[in-house]
């Protein structure tokens, strides 16, 4: 073969054995601070260093080693996952018609494989034949696009005979096709077989990672392998993500670096000047007898050396332990996330999992959530809940929206407030009980009027019978008998159809068999009756597509009557009703809007009785259209179908609940109240997506929907693409205009866009305006999007708005988006592990997202922000004192502190309190976080890590350093004795006293910063201070060869001295006075939300004044246009309006 | 959903009897992991704010007054003699004067005692512009050598004063010892010599643990360059208290070091005659030399800074406390007043 194809081996790891060390080390030293410390460590081996080498190298090795070990572990897990996939087995044609099993990774392009039922395809295959005679097979593409319905693939007719192992003995063919690409829905190529060339289309292509269903086996030829496959082409490299705060932290470190370089330059210039002009006079230094480090004859060289010394000495400005401490803190925070019982799912037994700890604080700053639909918001299960037959609505079950609205209306009459209480648990219970009651999957219908055959006593029983027959006949599903239970289950193209069939079965119309030409239904009108199996000949099937929005079957029943059964979107059906068929139109319309409001998916059902002659005439035309070849075949078919689907008689409508996962509407509601935007990206078709939008309250009645879709274009036209694009551009402009001109404050817009339109709008020239429109809409739903488009949309939001994005999904099709977003959340435990493997956080239910963001995110953001600010403060306060002292030593590079003090400062004496701040601080309790989602805005608005605050902390550090140094020096001035026995203070005494003040000052500072003291904080903060004295005692008691002038310093020199203790008290207080005054003033005049809530809690006002507490909680919610509450409020507005119309004398100001 | 629910409920039932793998994944409840540890949440209420500032003021002002009065009670006599002790014919050639070993360096000074100085009166010498804290200087000592007679060869870090030109180790080595201060003072009142006690001027720990009584000065000040004072080679280092005091390097370039103590009262208006051996060279770098007589109080020598600082901050806190009282009186805010919540203050912003 001329081309070298990829092997079928896949690898998703970041490193391999050889590249790990260089790549991981490179990653580590991309952190500027690490690079600096590496340099400092190297230089500390030379005599230039002011500090010992060990004290520079050890912490660095620790930090880098820890981080690299973490990376290695994460990559190892990915490797194991890959190995599992690579060593799956598949049957391959060996020779002479014999098939043998081999590992996936050994597959090559051109291999013939046989894939059996419920196996994954190992590579992209060309379907040759299947266990079905007509060469069809059913495929589940869950991992590719998230859809669980089955897709039918059809082989070429010419390869149909190749349906057994022996047939492949002498099989030869040539496939020519396009290069590997990422488009899942297109394929161009041809197949040369037996001297004939056949065109290939996506219908014959089986994609890797999709699953063979309902088909015993298929034969196929490998076309693309490994990383050439469509699914791998759709995967993007997993990027290493860093949080916004961490990126900003780097900037701060750059600032500190500049300061460091600046003061080092000042030092070295000062040193050079001193060395040149003054040192020759300093006979006590023997200036004539020096080396290059202090050579008065070469001041420039000495100055240069000194620059390096100074850079190392002032290194304390850059907190090396910041990285270690943040790593430790984040691991602790991740542990809290993992251990949170509120995010543990009892049903699946899976706790939440922070897969990377890098992004904890980012959780507190999320602005937009991009969510997958299937498996994330929904369980992908439809339940037949209600129906309207002949103008009567059946089904007593109620949806969550209805329950909440009812609850609210009753509570309003009691309290007179506009409080809507949706406790996470309360509305769940009825729903939950309902689920428990019904044990039939897909059927949640309760109404004694229809069940158990009692429908026969209803007035319109004839219509009801027709309704049930339409349910049982108008579909494309295949029945499957469950051998154990004897119950039929259905493999349907869509879960709605499945729900209809289950409903029909429960009503006594059991669809049991499908042949090429007939559908068999076992009917039983009442439990007492016998089963009657009836055969309906299917004459024609007019398929569903998103443009027609309807499907019909034409059947001949046993009596020979020809019926057209049609189900479809209500608008489509209603415009095709005959005059006589409109009897129930009014009632049905009313019911439909009620169902829609309740978040149900609705379809209208209708029929038409056909005359034999009428049918025959039409059928001739239909067959003609069907057999016509050419581009207009579809158009022809549609036109002919249109001729038949008219003059319909309306029977009724169905309402199916797309089963949302538990707590999803409440969670969306809370997230909306926290000010988060939610975009839904789904591979589903537009109708399904819209229905789900209703179900989870992203859409509601009265919302203005803006639908963007690509106008169908004539591909023959040369600039068809251009035309489509212009059309879209126009649509967007109009929509933007509409949004801008809207005056009603309650108006909300929803943007719905499909994948085809997205391909155009995501191009450079349109995407800015598309984004402008999208951010102005309350909810955005993208349907029919490919995995790549999901990632592209995510990137657009991320880069276009500059805000933090979070992507949540469960399937392999969400991997791209999960990786692209600032934070990727995987839903674990449903289907596959790809999404979880690519994610940063894994939760088992969508509803846990609320707690993950609003509680953990909020806390982690504040903790990390405060911690980093404090870190900079403390290191500036400490580091600058070293610099000031330099000015008094002729810039010689001498430190006033003992080496040991400096080493311990970051590692022991101040690290634990700051870790306890970072790990345990809580501004408000978790309950309050959940009750006041608005508090989350503090993170989104970045109130705690903006430059104003950072500079404030730095200023505080600068102030403290000045106070610490100059007050200490003035008090311990060597010009007068500091003790009653006349001793003067030497350098060790001054240094130790100053250091004591620093320890007190920074620890009191952190105590002032904290608002939540458990025994841990107390232990760490006060323990740090105590440990300093303990250290001094121990250090002073050791060998004087180690401690030098610090020998017995506390016991002998400082301890018995009043001035020492007075200076500590004084300086510690003065350092913290401005901060204390500032926060007191701020709280007095400008309290932040959490301050006020802390006070309410502190005085237990929430218990005394229940109404106020409730009122504030409801006000705290962002005025949202989406979500459950918004929807209930809209409904209330609506009801109030009606009320006003009835009682015009009542004047309440309400905007309707 | 419903079927999975059913299976879970059975799993739970069996889980009670036999712990399953599934159950082991459930995080164990503890107040720590659930972040529900009991905590105290102090709050800066107006009362506490005013209380803190008032308390600081109440504590600081008395301390300030006490320190100030202690500092005031200290009597201090300072006499700068570096310039006056150069004979008039050598003025302008101070370096020649101090470096010439044959010049007469004796110098007599008269001090008037302003107030009665109670015994003990501490005698200090004060140097200025002398960088005892220079890195080159600070590092130039060998603690091992001072402590252990067998380690006298450990002079590497003492360069350039580690070894004599012929290679013998210098004890004590290094620039610090080499530049030992060597002016001496003799005091007399009305021709009666006042005894100066030079014992116990160094830290006891230094004498007992850092300067060995078995180590004697050796080869000290024998090199080509003579630095400061010489040492009596028959006295062990532990008793060379002037050296021990000198070896405690000062933190700042202006410093005082204890020279000795006069253990008798000096009466007011007494004239004290000091005979100074002005040997030490501060002329090359323009450093002043001062002789200081001072009593000591509980805060040490005369240093009013601490008292003034305490009083200032105490006063500041008092005014802050008053300021906050006024603030709370004129701009009262009920704590926990919900109208201060952001969504109540700025409704349009929250509706954004």
Map the helices and strands.
The complex is a heterodimer of chains A (1152) and B (352).
Chain A lengths: L16 H12 L3 H12 L9 H34 L2 E7 L2 E6 L8 E5 L7 E7 L5 E5 L1 H4 L4 E5 L19 E4 L11 E5 L2 E5 L4 E2 L4 E3 L3 E8 L5 H4 L10 H35 L20 H15 L6 H20 L13 E2 L11 E7 L5 E12 L2 E3 L5 H16 L12 H10 L23 H13 L4 E4 L6 E4 L3 H13 L1 E6 L3 E6 L8 E11 L7 E7 L5 E7 L1 H5 L10 H13 L3 E10 L1 H16 L5 H12 L4 E12 L3 H10 L3 E5 L4 H10 L8 E5 L11 H22 L7 E6 H7 L2 H12 L3 E5 L3 H15 L2 E6 L5 H6 L2 E5 L6 H5 L2 E3 L4 H40 L11 H11 L1 H10 L5 H6 L5 H4 L6 H25 L15 H23 L5 H23 L2 H4 L5 H6 L3 H28 L3 H10 L2 H4 L1 H11 L6 H20 L10
Parallel strand pairs in A: 14-26, 14-30, 26-29, 27-28, 28-29, 30-31, 31-32
Antiparallel strand pairs in A: 1-2, 1-3, 3-12, 4-10, 4-12, 5-6, 5-11, 7-8, 8-9, 13-32, 15-16, 15-25, 17-18, 19-20, 20-21, 21-22, 22-23, 23-24, 24-25
Chain B lengths: L1 H16 L3 H4 L21 H28 L2 E5 L13 H6 L6 E7 L8 E7 L7 H4 L4 H5 L27 H4 L5 E6 L2 E3 L1 E2 L6 H7 L30 H7 L7 E8 L8 E7 L11 E6 L10 H26 L11 H4 L1 H4 L2
Antiparallel strand pairs in B: 1-9, 2-8, 3-7, 3-9, 4-5, 4-8, 6-7
Helix pairs in contact in B: 3-10
For the structure shown, list the relevant keywords:
heterodimer; A: 1152 residues; alpha+beta; Calcium-transporting ATPase, cytoplasmic transduction domain A; Rossmann fold; nine-stranded mixed sheet; nine-stranded antiparallel sheet; 39 helices; 47% helix; elongated; disordered C terminus; B: 352 residues; 2 domains; five-stranded antiparallel sheet; four-stranded antiparallel sheet; 12 helices; 14% strand; extended; CDC50/LEM3_fam (chain B); transmembrane (chain B); ALA-interacting subunit (chain B); transmembrane helix (chain B)
């Amino acid at each position: 073969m001329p081309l070298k194809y990829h092997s079928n081996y896949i690898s998703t790891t970041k490193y391999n054995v050889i590249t790990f060390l260089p790549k991981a080390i490179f990653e580590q030293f991309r952190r500027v601070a690490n690079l600096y410390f590496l340099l400092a460590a190297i230089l500390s081996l030379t005599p230039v260093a002011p500090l010992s080498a060990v004290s520079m190298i050890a912490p660095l090795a620790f930090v880098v080693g820890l981080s690299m070990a973490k990376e290695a572990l994460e990559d190892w897990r990915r490797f194991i996952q890959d190995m599992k996939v690579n060593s799956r087995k598949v049957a391959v044609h060996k020779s002479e018609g014999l098939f043998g099993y081999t590992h996936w990774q050994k597959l090559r392009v051109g291999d013939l494989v046989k894939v059996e039922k419920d196996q994954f395809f190992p590579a992209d295959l060309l379907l040759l034949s299947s266990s079905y005679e007509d060469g069809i097979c059913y495929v589940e593409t869950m991992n590719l696009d998230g859809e669980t319905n089955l897709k039918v693939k059809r082989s070429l007719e010419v390869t149909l005979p190749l349906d057994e192992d022996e047939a492949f003995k002498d099989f030869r063919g040539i496939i020519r096709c396009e290069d590997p690409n990422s488009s899942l829905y297109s394929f161009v190529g041809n197949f040369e077989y037996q001297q004939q060339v056949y065109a290939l289309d996506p219908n014959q292509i089986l994609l890797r990672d999709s699953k063979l269903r309902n088909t015993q086996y298929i034969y196929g030829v490998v076309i693309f392998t490994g990383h050439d496959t469509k699914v791998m082409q759709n995967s993007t490299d997993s990027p290493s993500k860093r949080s916004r705060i961490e990126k900003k932290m780097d900037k701060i470190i750059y600032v500190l670096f500049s300061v460091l370089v600046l003061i080092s330059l000042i030092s070295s210039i000062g040193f050079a000047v001193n060395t040149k002009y003054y040192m020759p006079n300093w006979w006590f230094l023997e200036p004539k007898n020096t080396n290059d480090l202090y050579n008065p004859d070469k001041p420039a060289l000495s100055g240069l050396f000194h620059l390096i010394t100074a850079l190392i000495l002032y290194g304390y400005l850059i907190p090396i332990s910041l990285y270690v401490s943040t790593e430790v803190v984040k691991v602790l925070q991740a542990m809290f996330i993992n251990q949170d019982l509120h995010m543990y799912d009892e049903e699946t037994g899976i706790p939440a999992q922070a897969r990377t700890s890098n992004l904890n604080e980012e959780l507190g700053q999320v602005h937009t959530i991009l969510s997958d639909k299937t498996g994330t918001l929904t369980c992908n299960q439809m339940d037949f809940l209600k129906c309207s037959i002949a103008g009567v609505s059946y089904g007593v079950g109620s949806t969550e929206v209805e329950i909440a609205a009812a609850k609210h209306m009753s509570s309003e009459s009691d309290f007179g407030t506009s409080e809507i209480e949706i406790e996470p648990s309360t509305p769940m219970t009825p729903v939950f009980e309902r689920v428990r009651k019904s044990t039939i999957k897909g059927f949640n219908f309760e109404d004694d009027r229809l069940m158990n055959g009692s429908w026969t006593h209803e007035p319109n029983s004839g219509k009801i019978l027709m309704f049930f027959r339409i349910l049982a006949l108008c579909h494309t599903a295949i029945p499957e008998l469950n051998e154990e239970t004897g119950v039929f289950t259905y493999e349907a193209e869509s879960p709605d159809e499945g729900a209809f069939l289950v409903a029909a079965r429960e009503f006594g119309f059991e669809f049991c068999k499908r042949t090429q030409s007939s559908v068999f239904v076992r009917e039983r009108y009442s439990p007492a009756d016998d089963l009657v199996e009836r055969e309906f000949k299917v004459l024609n099937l007019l398929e569903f597509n998103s443009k027609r929005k309807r499907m019909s079957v034409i059947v001949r029943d046993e009596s020979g009557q020809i019926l057209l059964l049609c189900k479809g979107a209500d608008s489509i059906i209603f415009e095709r009703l005959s005059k006589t068929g409109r009897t129930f139109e009014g009632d049905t319309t009313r019911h439909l809007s009620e169902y829609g409001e309740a978040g149900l998916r609705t379809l209208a059902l209708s029929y038409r009785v056909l005359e034999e002659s009428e049918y025959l005439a039409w059928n001739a035309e239909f067959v003609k259209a069907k057999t016509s070849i050419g581009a207009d075949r579809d158009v022809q078919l549609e036109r002919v179908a249109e001729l038949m689907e008219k003059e319909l008689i309306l029977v009724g409508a169905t309402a199916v609940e797309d089963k949302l996962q538990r707590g999803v509407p409440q969670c969306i509601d809370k997230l909306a109240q926290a000010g988060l935007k939610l975009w839904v990206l789904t591979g589903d078709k537009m109708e399904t997506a819209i229905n789900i939008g209703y179900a989870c309250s992203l859409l509601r009645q009265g919302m203005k929907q803006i639908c963007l879709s690509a106008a169908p274009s004539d591909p023959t036209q040369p600039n068809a693409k251009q035309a489509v694009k212009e059309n879209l551009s126009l649509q967007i402009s109009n929509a933007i205009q509409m949004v801008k001109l809207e005056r009603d404050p309650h108006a909300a817009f929803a943007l719905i866009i499909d994948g085809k339109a997205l391909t155009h709008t995501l191009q450079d020239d349109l995407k800015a305006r598309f984004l402008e429109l999208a951010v102005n809409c309350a909810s955005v739903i993208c349907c029919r999007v490919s995995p790549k488009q999901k990632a592209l949309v995510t990137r657009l939001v991320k880069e276009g708005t500059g805000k933090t994005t979070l992507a949540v999904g469960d399937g392999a099709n969400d991997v791209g988006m999960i990786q692209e977003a600032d934070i990727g959340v995987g839903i674990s435990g449903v289907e596959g592990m790809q999404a979880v493997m690519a994610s940063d956080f894994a939760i088992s239910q969508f509803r846990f997202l609320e707690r993950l963001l609003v509680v953990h995110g909020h806390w982690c953001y504040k903790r990390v922000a405060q911690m980093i600010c404090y870190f900079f403060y403390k290191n500036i306060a400490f580091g600058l004192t070293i610099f000031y002292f330099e000015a008094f030593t002729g810039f010689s590079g001498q430190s006033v502190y003992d080496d040991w003090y400096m080493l311990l400062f970051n590692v022991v004496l101040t690290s634990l309190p700051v870790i306890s701040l970072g790990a345990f601080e809580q501004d408000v309790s978790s309950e309050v976080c959940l009750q006041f989602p608005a508090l989350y805005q503090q993170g989104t608005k970045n109130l705690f890590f903006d430059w104003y605050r950072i500079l404030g902390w730095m200023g505080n550090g600068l102030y403290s350093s000045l106070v610490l140094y100059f007050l200490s020096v003035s008090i311990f001035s060597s010009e007068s004795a500091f003790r009653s026995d006349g001793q003067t203070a030497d350098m060790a005494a001054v240094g130790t006293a100053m250091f004591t003040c620093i320890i007190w000052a920074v620890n009191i500072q952190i105590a002032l910063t904290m608002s939540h003291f458990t025994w841990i904080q107390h232990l760490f903060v006060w323990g740090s201070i105590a440990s300093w004295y303990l250290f001094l005692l121990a250090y002073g008691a050791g060998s004087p060869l180690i401690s030098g002038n610090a020998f017995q310093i506390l016991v002998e020199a400082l301890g018995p001295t009043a001035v020492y203790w007075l200076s500590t008290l004084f300086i510690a207080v003065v350092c913290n006075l401005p901060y204390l005054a500032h926060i007191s003033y701020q709280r007095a005049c400008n309290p932040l939300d959490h301050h006020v809530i802390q006070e309410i809690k502190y005085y237990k006002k929430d218990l005394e004044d229940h109404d106020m507490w409730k009122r504030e909680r409801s006000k705290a919610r962002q005025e949202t246009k989406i979500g459950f509450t918004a929807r209930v409020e809209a409904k209330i507005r609506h009801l109030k309006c009606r009320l006003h119309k009835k009682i015009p004398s009542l004047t309440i100001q309400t905007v309707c | 959903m419903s079927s999975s629910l059913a299976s879970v409920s059975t799993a739970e039932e069996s889980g009670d009897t036999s712990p399953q793998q599934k159950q082991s994944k459930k995080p164990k409840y503890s107040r720590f992991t659930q972040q529900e540890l009991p905590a105290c949440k102090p709050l800066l209420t107006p009362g506490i704010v005013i209380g803190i500032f008032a308390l600081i003021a109440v504590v600081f002002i008395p301390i300030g007054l006490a320190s100030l009065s202690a500092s005031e009670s200290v009597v201090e006599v300072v006499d700068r003699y570096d310039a006056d002790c150069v004979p008039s014919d050598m003025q302008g050639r101070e370096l020649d004067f101090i470096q010439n070993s044959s010049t007469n360096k004796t110098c007599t000074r008269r001090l008037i005692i302003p107030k009665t100085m109670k015994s003990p009166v501490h005698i200090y010498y004060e140097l200025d512009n002398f960088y005892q804290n220079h890195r080159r200087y600070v590092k130039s000592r060998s603690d091992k050598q001072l402590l252990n007679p067998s380690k006298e060869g450990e002079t590497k870090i003492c360069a350039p004063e580690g070894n004599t030109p012929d290679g013998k180790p210098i004890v004590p080595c290094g620039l610090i010892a080499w530049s030992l201060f060597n002016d001496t003072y003799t005091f007399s009142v009305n021709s009666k010599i006042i005894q100066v006690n030079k014992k116990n001027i160094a830290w006891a720990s230094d004498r007992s643990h850092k300067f060995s009584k078995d180590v004697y000065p050796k080869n000290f000040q024998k090199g080509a360059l003579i630095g400061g004072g010489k040492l009596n080679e028959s006295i062990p280092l532990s008793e060379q208290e002037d050296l021990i005091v000198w070896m405690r390097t000062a933190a700042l370039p202006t410093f005082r070091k204890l020279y000795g103590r006069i253990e008798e009262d000096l009466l007011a208006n007494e004239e004290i005659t000091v005979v100074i051996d002005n040997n030490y060279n501060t002329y090359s770098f323009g450093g002043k030399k001062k002789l200081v007589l001072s009593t000591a109080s509980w805060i040490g020598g005369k240093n009013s800074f601490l008292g003034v600082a305490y009083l200032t901050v105490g006063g500041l806190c008092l005014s802050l406390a008053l300021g906050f009282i006024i603030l709370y009186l004129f701009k009262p805010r009920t704590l926990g007043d919900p109208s201060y919540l952001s969504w109540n203050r700025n409704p349009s912003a929250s509706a954004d």
